[in-house]
Amino acid sequence: EVQLVESGGGLVQPGGSLRLSCAASGFSFSNHWMTWVRQAPGKGMEWVADINQDGSGIYYVDSVKGRFTMSRDNAKKSLYLQMNSLRAEDTALYYCAKRRNGALDSWGQGTPVTVSS
Amino acid sequence: DIVMTQSPDSLAVSLGERATINCKSSQSVLHSSNNKNYLAWYQQKPGQPPNLLIYWAFTRESGVPDRFSASGSGTDFTLTISSLQAEDVAVYFCQQHYNSPHTFGQGTKLEIK
């Protein structure tokens, strides 16, 4: 059974940093693109970033470019999102998801990030 | 960026009746190299992460009931629930993965009438 478990969320002041992690199990992690998606309270979904199988290709939504860094460790079957210079508008539930046939076929339960003073 | 626009924003349908949700992309998501539409549909129930229903615009994900179907190509897509069940109450999203950023529609909230 595919499992994705996010961690690392919390309350942080504007301008602060957080590092999210996603532990994967139940599938061949190194064979799949992975994605971070966020959902602000009461809002829709926003795709944040994608990473290819070996980490050599990473793509970000414009609003996080230069502030967020996505990475992966295939040996540890883990995905990461380093978030710097956080803003109030980054407040959201952050999901990691597995890609198959381009779509997101498995999702974690999410980790909440709140940016507030 | 490709803008995904869903309609309606909310929908109330009687049990056993048909529900139809539309999704329009600001540019075509049909890839000429493989003739596939890079469009997926998701269902999100309260307090849960989204669940993939449909990929490549009309291919049902394994385990998804056959009352869910989808159609469309290019820029216009439709998700249909043929006979609404109580457990189908949710928010439905479309997403394109043709170009980064892989944008989502704003969501359609489906309720029982």
Could you explain the architecture of this structure?
The complex is a heterodimer of chains A (117) and B (113). Chain A has 117 residues and is mostly beta strands. Chain A has strands at 3-7, 10-12, 18-25, 34-39, 45-51, 58-60, 68-73, 78-83, 92-100, 103-107, 111-115. In chain A, strands 2, 4, 5, 6, 9, 10 and 11 form a 7-stranded mixed β-sheet that branches. In chain A, strands 1-3-8-7 form a 4-stranded antiparallel β-sheet, with no helix packed on it. In chain A, a hairpin with a 4-residue loop joins strand 7 (68-73) and strand 8 (78-83). Chain A is globular and about 40 Å long. Classes of the chains: A mainly beta (117), B mainly beta (113).
Class by SSE composition of chain B: mainly beta
Portion of residues in helices of chain A?
A: under 10%
Biggest β-sheet strands, sense, barrel of chain A? 7 strands, mixed
Net shape of chain B: globular
In percent, how much strand structure appears in the residues of chain B?
Answer: over 45%
Helical segment tally of chain B? 0
Report Rg of chain B. Answer: 13 Å
The major beta sheet of chain B can be summarized as: 6 strands, mixed
Give the chain pair forming the largest contact, with residue counts: A-B, 23 and 23 residues
Poorly predicted ranges of chain A (pLDDT <50, ≥5 residues)?
none
Kindly state the mean pLDDT of chain B as a whole number?
97
Question: Would you count the extended β strands of chain B for me?
Answer: 12
Helicity level of chain B: under 10%
Mean of the pLDDT scores of chain A?
Answer: 97
